[in-house]
Amino acid sequence: MTSREAKPLSISRQSLQRMPVYLELLKKIKADGGAYVSAAFLAGELGLHPVQVRKDLASVSKVDGNPRIGFALDGLIDDMEDFLGCKNAHEAVVAGVGNLGRALLSYGGFGSYGLSIIAGFDTSPDVVGTTVAGKEIFHASRISELCSRLGVHIGIITAPAAAAQSACDALTAGGVRAIWNFAPVRLTLPPGVIVTNENLAASFAALSGRLSQLSRGE
Fold it and tell me: Lowest-pLDDT range, 7-16, 76-85, 123-132?
């Protein structure tokens, strides 16, 4: 097995979104006793083109595939985990503890990708002071203070649209450098802060559109 000296410096958003899907499948193949995997097999399992799979893997991994036996699973998994930061502990907080916020606080699967949600924030007296999945819920007025004190760099916003910008301002004032935004609003961010926006309505619209195409036989 040979390797390249360096990996590309950038990757498309679409490829980046596929990486956790690849990683989950690679780990399943390894758990089933596999040691190698081909791009064609991955493509068939995920409904992708083998050329796209090879490009995606090459963008994050130094492992070169063998034409006869494919890619070594251990190397692919290690490189993908390094790229996704799975081996680094990233602590995050949730701003807005409604149904979605509670679901994220309760979800245990983030740990596989190096993310640990340690606390939540809200303004409702019925929520502040309670715990969700063992994580304490603090008043939103303490976002900046606690993020700064705990060195939190990731903030997850599940607050209503009207409260999202103020939550964002408090998070970034506390040193948060990355925002995962579920609120249906575009945030104004200071320089050096990155954001990923999750538009649930748009995702459903895309799914509905694909279903309509399927129903028409397209």
Answer: 7-16
Name the H helices within the chain.
13-31, 39-46, 50-60, 73-84, 99-106, 143-150, 161-173, 200-215
Q: How confident is the model at residue 5 (pLDDT cuts 50, 70, 90)?
A: very low
pTM: 0.71
Tell me the domains of the chain and their CATH numbers.
13-84 (1.10.10.10), 90-202 (3.40.50.720)
Q: CA-CA distance, 200 to 195, in Å (whole number)?
A: 16
- Mind listing the pLDDT tens digit for each residue in 150-192? 999 999 999 999 999 999 999 999 999 999 999 999 999 999 9
Is 120 in contact with 132 (CB distance < 8 Å)? yes
Distances (CA, A) of 196 to 17, 112, 164, 178, 179: 11, 20, 14, 8, 6
Distances in whole angstroms, Cα of residue 136 to Cα of each of 73, 88, 118, 123, 124: 39, 23, 8, 13, 14
Cα→Cα distances 144→95, 116, 119, 148, Å: 11, 18, 13, 6
List Cβ neighbours of 3 (8 Å cut-off, separation of 6 or more).
62, 63, 64
115: left (phi > 0), else alpha (psi -120 to 50), else beta? Answer: beta
Query: Does 139 have pLDDT greater than 50?
Result: yes
